[in-house]
Specification:
Layout: H1 2-28, H2 30-60, H3 64-67, H4 70-87, H5 91-101, H6 103-114
Length: 156
Amino acid sequence: MTRSIIAILLLLLPLLEIAGFVFVGRHIGIGYTLLLVVASMVVGMIVLRRQGFKALSRLRRRDLPRDMPAERFFGTALVLLAGLLLIIPGFVTDVIGLFLLVPFCRRLIAGHLASRVVVVNVDGAAQPHDPGPEPRPAKPRTIDLDSDDYRRDEPH
């Protein structure tokens, strides 16, 4: 049921965006409408640039499972989504993007999303709820390949 509603909304989005352009264009004029679209794109690029680099540096850190709980991860992802929505020309996506930039709304959505996910640690490192005084050592990761599963290229 939810997937069909999302599909219908995605199909209606271009029509809603066109209606938004017509509505705003009639009220403030075409010049200001275009200026508003360009301004929202610039704001979206700034959000993506500032928050995107921070998010990527956090995701690259080795202590991610202990350092970034699911709620904080989704909060960061929602900020990046907000930046993308602001870059897309249109007022409906801009309103959704601005809504996602409000910390209270973002925490609410991130909390809801985090409650629906299960975090699995594939490295075998210590979990945050580990009762032991010191974390267990990480298990070595081994990839078992047959001889025809890989090839070695010699430098030319």
